[in-house]
Amino acid sequence: MAWAMTRSSYINEQMLEPDEEKRKHNESRLAYQMRRVAERYARKEKALKSGYQTTDEAYYESAGLGQLLPFVIASVVDGTVLEQIQQMIQDGQPKGKSSPSEGGNLLATLIDIKRCFLKLDVQDQHLLRLRHFDNYTLQQIAGQLECAVSTADRRCQQALRRLIELLGGPSPWQ
Fold first, then answer.
1. pLDDT single digits (tens) 63-97
2. Alpha carbon separation from 128 to 19, 80, 82, 124 (Å, rounded)
């Protein structure tokens, strides 16, 4: 609301555009700007009430996630318990209010990814394992699935997108 009140002359100018097409475009742009302002405000309030900074929020990109997946899948395949390692690390550190994932803690990030990876259906887990752990090419995956290479690529991308959604979705700033 404050955003709109401080820009009332700008908003009026945009809304009084004589050209119908430009006015509709301006309405759309203003609505987008207001949604972004409201979203930022809500994120700041949530962070304030939860006791963290908005800079502590983590969003995963498919490229970065692809680099971390081999370690996560190895912990699933080999039975490495990342959570126990995290607890041992925390036992040696002073207790604080912050959560382990704040400040870019790689182990906490891997644990988050592992939890979400295990929530995926078996087919998605299998595809991600073939692609990111066993280092199969798309041609090899297509051969195993008995489908076209483009279909194998699409299925791998969809599995990765589903994992990103479980992790909280893609970054809203991209």
1. 778 888 888 888 888 777 666 665 655 555 544 44
2. 51, 18, 19, 6
Alpha-carbon dihedral sign for residues 44, 174, 56, 91 = positive
The radius of gyration of the chain's CA atoms, rounded to the nearest angstrom, is 22
Please name which of 73, 101, 72, 77 lies closest in space to residue 89, comparing C-alpha atoms. 101
Question: How many Å apart are CA 127 and CA 145, to the nearest integer?
Answer: 10
Q: How far apart are CA 138 and CA 98, in angstroms?
A: 41
**Sequence-separated (6 or more) residues with CB below 8 Å from residue 119:** 166
- DSSP class of residue 128 equals H
Q: Name the pTM for this structure.
A: 0.57
Residues 6+ apart with CB under 8 A from 43: 54, 57
Which has the closest alpha carbon to 37: 73, 9, 69, 2? 2
Residue with tokens 């909280």: 168
3-state secondary structure of 62: helix
In the chain, the amino acid numbered 146 is E
**Is the distance from CB of 163 to CB of 66 less than 8 angstroms?**
no
Dist CA 139 CA 21 (whole Å): 48
